[in-house]
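Hey,
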Amino acid sequence: MTSSSRLLIAVLCDDVRTEVRGKVSLMGLFDNFSVSDVDKPLPPFRLSARIGVTTPGDHPVKLRISSIEDDFQVELPGKLTARETNAASGLHEAVMTLGITGLMVPRAGRYRLRFVIDDVVVDGPMFTVTRREKRNLN
């Protein structure tokens, strides 16, 4: 049986904390990396996502990070497990938190995140990488 997927929320942030009663707190939401040197990895970050699917169980998933020009692409494979049906969305939901470290991008510019769930591409958030001006201390 084929499942359809919907991205309910996805954000980039500095940290994700799961509270005692199951609430998720997202710390330091952002959509821009301001770096002094693009030749070094981006600072470590987290991606928090809630994804709804029409069928419960395990689903193959890839996180695809690409430049807006589509001349750069990285894929991170994984598995999505959806069990509970959310009363608001009517979908079986899974929550993903990915810690991403060491990501190198080829240049300053715009980048997009996409999820490939059961071989269907679902658009996620976009982010920018900007070069920070170096300060003279004189």
